[in-house]
Specification:
Helices cover 51% and strands 0% of the residues. Helix 10 packs parallel to helix 12 (221-227) and helix 13 (231-239) packs parallel to helix 15 (264-272). It has 633 residues and is mostly helical. It is built from 37 helices and no strands.
Amino acid sequence: MAASTPIPVPLTPEEEEEQIEFAILQSIMLDQARESEDNLWMTHSQCVSAAASETINGNTRGVEERSSPTGSSGCSPHVPANTSMSSRRSPTTISNTPDVSERSARSISPERHGQQRRNTNSRNCCKVRDDILLGHILYIEQQEKEIQSTANPPVHMAIRNNHFECIEEIIKEFPEVLDTKNVKGDTPLYVAVSQENILMTRRLIAAGVNLNCKQRNRDTPLQAAVERDNETLCSLLLKNGANPNLGMNRGWTAVHECVDRGNTRLLETLLRHGASPNVRDTYGVSPVFSGAACGRNECLKILLAAGGDPNLCASTKVASPLYEACKKSHQDCALTLLKYAADPHISNCENLYPIHMACKKGLVRVVEELVKVTDKDMVENCGKSPLHFGAEENELEILEILIENGYDVDVKIAKSKISFRDRRQTALFFAVDNDSEEATATLLKAGAQTDLDYVKPLLVAESHRQYNIVDMLIASGADINATFAEEGMIFPATIAFAIRDNEMFRKILLAGCDVARCFECPFEDADHTIFSEEEQKKSFCYFLGLEQNIQWAGWTLVHLLGFVDNVTLCKRMRDILLTTEHWNDIALTVGQPRSLTHLCRLKIRRTAKTILFDRTDVPLPKPLLDYLNHKPF
């Protein structure tokens, strides 16, 4: 005979309420099982489910227990003894409760709260809220233990999702989570401010959150508000006790950040609430220094008006705000600092002053103000003059300002400050090396000497083929026979620099260079190779015999012989010239006495100073002038 179908037992209101609770807990249990949550919650859910099942299906349970093959206290061979009875209910029993499950689902539906359901872990803020509201004590106790160790605590999730109901219940039940941190080290207030959520920020402040609690990178909520240029949040935090002078990472404060961003309104708000314009970070950088370095002139004015110190130096650079403003070419900031009595005599770690940087960067207006208040002797004797910087950067207007104010054009760079391989030391050298005819003329007009450097400016002008500068230097008295005396060279270096340039070579020879020194050789007819190379280098024959110069040897000697009287050639010179096409002419010239007309020309030029014959107003017949000036050259 077929078994009869069990008749469902009618539910009382109390039993129906218990069934709803069972469905809620069962839903939580299933979510946790999918996400591999811990066994503690699973055991707790199953126990509660069993208890609810026994209450709802008491009569049916009794029949099942009595018919069990293992007895009233036994367990099924395939089911653990501690497994809830609900997990062993027959399909018929489960099929009798669809209406209850539907009502249960509706009772916890997200739409009930106007939110979209999120598939998150068991620490989802909405689930925590629901369990708080339903009073599930064991689950709440477990959350309380783990709520601060989770990667994304419910309180942070509630803020990110803008769930006000959740945040209300969570902080009411767990007030200690107000200052907890997530895996990134962010506090709830920092998250709310970062999202610029003003209402959530107000709620957290009202709940007593720590306004100065730092996140992992030591940033504060106030810093986050400043970074987002949010004046409303800044005012809200400051009015409720946020510390505007609190140092963050490397001591950087909200005031520094505000200046760096150039937000004048926020800066004024911070200063009104007790922010110090002289607070310093780990490197000794004050907001005034930061404003000068970043070119935030409006912020700088606000800070200085609020009592900011214009002379507070950075400890690492030992540089003043004025020096830094000049260095970064912030002319308006430098003028503002001078207006507030910034000291122009504070040097940096290299013993350089603001006027040096102003000259280097071409800040004409700043230089005009600095020359009025700067001690000239102090900045000239520090190892490097402002003139050096002006000439190096070819700042003509600045050179004129400095010269007009009495700066010495012949001041040399101290040996300890020399940083160039050519050992340059004068402003004139910088001007010539820059190929600047205007700067060279300005310095020469002011009386600059032409031969104070180790490498003479005339040699530099020759190597750069600057014919006009060469003329200016020679006219100002440059040594036409300049050489490298420390190396013991016998011949003029000016000739060596000009042998590959016909026009330059002619200028040097007509300017009165002592050509006879090119034919002086201490070894004469001896074999030069038996002497040390250091001794050989002193003679012109060694220079002419270098591989890169041999091709110019014949041409060079032909023209050099036009500016000397009777000379002899050393053994090396003869060996070099024998291989050139000019040897026959050279041998003829050297092998017999020089003509009287040639000797007279040399005598006239030596007596009358050669430079005069290049002038057009010399009262001599043109054929004679052409002859004296070697026109057939």
